Fold this protein.
Amino acid sequence: MNQRARWRIGTRGSPLALIQTDIVRDALVAAHPSLAGAVEVVVIKTTGDKFQDRALSEVGGKGMFTKEIDEALLDGRIDLAMHSVKDLPTALPEGIVLPSILAREDPRDVFVSLKFKSLGAMPAGARVGSASLRRQAQVLHRHPGLKATLFRGNVNTRLKKLEAGEAEATILAMAGLIRLGRTDVATEVLEPEVMLPAVGQGALAVTCRADDAEAKRLLTPLNDDKTSACVAAERAMLAVLDGSCRTPIAGYAELAGRTLRLRGLVASPDGARVFTAERTGDAGQAPALGREVGRELRSRAIVEVFKDIG
């Protein structure tokens, strides 16, 4: 039985992060009814939240959304930490483990515009606002006449930027819109064949200290085996590619029975060069499949895309 009077979950303070933390808290209480009223949400401002006017690559990449939360976990200010999987660096800090990945929400991206009905309907010179090099590169690859412009901030902030005319369209994650109850703003759903998702997109992760056996016991029932297998393949691919926010990388795994299909993509930031790879195999070999896809992509793209890490 739970021996602590309270459990503190650390999270970013955006509306979406708070909703996602509520999802985790509800799952914890559903799995352990004795925790009702004993789970406290602790908001932690991260470096990535402090610099909203600059690209992630300029402020340190993915770790900028997790660094301060990791520090709070390691020094005992919180017991658990909620993250979007796509924000997690491929290697967790020493002393932190990931016992639980919740069932994935819709991983697709959506096109949002107040002026155009689809991405393909946008005329040359129209602007697509996004902070994601992955999204920018895939848009520019399919529609080289469009222009990519930097959009940072939460969903509401980006929608306000559209209304203010800072761009004609933006790309958002369907999972976030579902959780926020804002699917009404989606103009067009982009299938993976059009826009391959980010590694881990739509999935939530809960981390804890490696030496906290009680926390690991509490989190184990929240883990979704299907999502975990898919995420393991995607993150293994990303680790081989040494992926950061400086390189457009996409990866999406699907599971049908025991058969896992992983698709991966790397591109030049301008979308001029795109490399794809795919593997299918048993779910029990998910990390190995991910490494195979990563190695193929790296070997093919290293001269043109990965010069800086070659």
Q: What stands out?
A: Residues 7-102+203-223 form a domain with the D-Maltodextrin-Binding Protein; domain 2 fold (CATH 3.40.190.10). The chain has a mean pLDDT of 91. The first strand starts at residue 7 and ends at 11. The two ends are 51 Å apart (CA to CA).
